[in-house]
Amino acid sequence: MSVHKEVRKITTHVLLEMKRNKKKIAMLTAYDYSMAKILDSTGIDVILVGDSASNVMAGYESTLPITLDMMIYHAASVVRGVNRALVVVDLPFGTYQSNSKLALSSAIRIMKETGAAAVKIEGGEEVKDSVKRILSAGIPVMGHLGLMPQSIHKFGTYVVRAKEEEEASKLISDAHLLEDLGCFAIVLEKIPASLASQIASEIKIPIIGIGAGSVDGQVLVLHDMLGITQEFSPRFLRRYASLDKIIGDAVVKYIEDVKNCDFPDKTEQY
Ligand code: KIV
Fold it and tell me: Does residue 50 have its Cβ closer than 6 Å to ligand 1?
């Protein structure tokens, strides 16, 4: 007789319950099947197929060039590796800002072609119509405020956002707006910890921080926290491994073994 272990899938409702019960939410990015499978087996709550794929997978300097088709390829690969975690997919630059009909059709493509459970959108008031329309089709939306990498050409730099009163008060009202519209969570990126914690205490949906202090949950880019990438070292990034060295050492050893005729040996052939 086989024993089936029931997996309690993480849904947007589970995340709301976690906030109510003061349980922290752990979220990481992933872009492919193999990594997603490892992440899911650890008990991670949320996997974000971030448009940071543009940087860490495709080697672009910003998140702007990645296309909807590329995001769909990454997201569908991730979903095939996941049983439990909630998979959220970034709507890439240019697929939701210009009008809400385009936003809805981009979100529908993501949901239909990847099997993911939600989409993430950068912005507040400016993208209100798109958020509303996507939500009206029953697609859960995660917001993203503070440093919004898709607007890098407007900001000019990746420095901490909302340090000044005017930007901080717009951010607070955008967070309330996203909650009122029906978003199930909001990512706050690179803003003062005191501002993020004020927002997290004022609103009921989970606030997931990246460089925003201790809020309801945290997110990091997988390749940065694993030390696959080393060139990006902001203060908020804690590196949990140096995989660049582990991978590099393994490959150097492999090259040596091939060149010295040590690989394959008798047991490694037919
Ligand atoms: O694209 C991404 O990886 C993100 C996270 C940094 C939140 O949006």
Answer: yes
The residue ranges of every structural domain in the chain are 3-239, 242-270
Cα 130 from Cα 136, distance rounded (Å): 10
CA 160 to CA 222: how far, in whole Å?
Answer: 21
* Ligand 1 pocket check for 187: Cβ under 6 Å: yes
Query: Residue 75 Cα, ligand 1 centroid: separation in angstroms?
Result: 14
Gap between the Cα atoms of 55 and 245, Å rounded? 20
Residue from 27, 46, 78, 90 whose mutation best tests the ligand 1 pocket (most atoms within 8 A of CB): 90
Residues taking part in catalysis? 189
CATH number assigned to the domain covering 3-239 = 3.20.20.60
Is the backbone of residue 84 left (phi > 0), alpha (psi -120 to 50) or beta? Answer: alpha
3-state secondary structure of 227: coil
Over the stretch 28-81, which tens digit does the pLDDT of each residue have? 999 999 999 999 999 999 999 999 999 999 999 999 999 999 999 999 999 999
CA of 221 to the centre of ligand 1 (A): 6
Q: What pTM does this model have?
A: 0.96
Nearest to residue 188, comparing CAs of 116, 99, 178?
A: 178
